[in-house]
Amino acid sequence: MFFGSRRNAGARMAAKKIFIWDTYWDSSLVHCFGVNVQAPVTAALERAWYDVARLMPAGGAILDLGCGNGAVPLAMARAGGGFAITGIDEAAIDPVNNVPDHAELFGAMRFLPRTAMETLPFPDASFDLVTSQFGIEFSGNSPAALAEAMRVLKPGGRLVIMALPHASRAVSDARIALKQARHLLGDSTLFATAIRMVKEYHAATDASAEDVMRQGLDQFCGEVEKTFAPFPDNEVGVLSAMVFCLYQVFTHRRTTTNAEQMMAVETLRTRLAHYGARAQATLKAAMPDTALSPFTATLGTLGAKSMEILPLMAPGHGIVAIRLTARR
């Protein structure tokens, strides 16, 4: 009974980990960690994948692990070469429908949601190239994922990983974001105040409702000041976004019901919890050194013929990834 409970708890934790990425990729975002709005980072990654694509045979088969909404498949397709591209992810991905700007390119590819990189559903020696951009390091079992990657590679094929380095800006941003999310969800009373305001506004008579809201907004402003107080001005991005969204809920008070407003506040709180969980996953996954020793040691035991490690830099952002290339 005890062991069964532990197994069930493990399964629930795994499902929760996947769900936080379901909610992220159910959007038009192509990159993770916010790099979709950081042009130098996006450009550096795309140039790096273009260099990889130039070494591929025309029409070669590519598998991208942890593909999300298709950042690497998109970069490889733009490079030309008529590649046969497959992307897999444990999350419920659907790039063709979620990213309409690139639907035509994505429509020519194959995407497999709910597919674990540790147990790939492909025969041995199926691909000329296996890629991963901020993917394998998030695996719960990276040695198994690397073993599967090498198994499905053709002899002479290459595994190219863009790993998240601990020193990257994405990691430092995640650390700041997690601190803010925990503060909002734990120490701050901002959400509780918002819920109380919605209840009191809709419980008031028509004549007094606006006065109730004005009083509530005065209290809310006080809570905002308390919430922002522990943070320097350059570390309040998540807090500012949540405050803005809550103000939007209040702004639409005359055209939405009590239930709709309550749901809006709870949805914001849930999304913040998921955001915080993804930030925590980023911190946990970041590689501790530029040698990628956990990966190289595993690949050595798997018989990788050669390995090359290079840092990937972006102007104004420093190191954004560590590129590891291995041959089968």
Describe the structure.
This protein is α/β, with parallel strands linked by helices. The protein folds into two domains: 2-167 and 286-327, Vaccinia Virus protein VP39 (Rossmann fold, 3-Layer(aba) Sandwich), CATH 3.40.50; 170-282, no CATH class. The protein is built from twelve helices and seven strands. It has helices spanning 2-25, 39-54, 71-78, 95-98, 103-107, 142-152, 169-187, 190-203, 209-228, 237-251, 258-285, 293-301; strands at residues 61-65, 84-88, 110-112, 127-133, 153-163, 306-314, 318-327. A seven-stranded mixed β-sheet has the order 3-2-1-4-5-7-6. It is elongated, with a radius of gyration of 23 Å.
Uncertain regions spanning at least 5 consecutive residues: 1-7
The span between the termini is: 44 Å
Return the string of H and E elements.
HHEHEHHEEHEHHHHHHEE
CATH H level, superfamily name of the largest domain: Vaccinia Virus protein VP39
Radius of gyration using CA atoms only:
23 Å
The neighbouring-strand order within the major sheet is 3-2-1-4-5-7-6
Q: Specify the CATH architecture of the largest domain.
A: 3-Layer(aba) Sandwich
Give the oligomer, counting copies of the same chain as homo and different chains as hetero: single chain
Number of domains: 2
Q: What is the number of helices?
A: 12
Structural class from helices and strands?
Answer: alpha/beta
**Coarse shape:** elongated
The biggest beta sheet reads:
7 strands, mixed
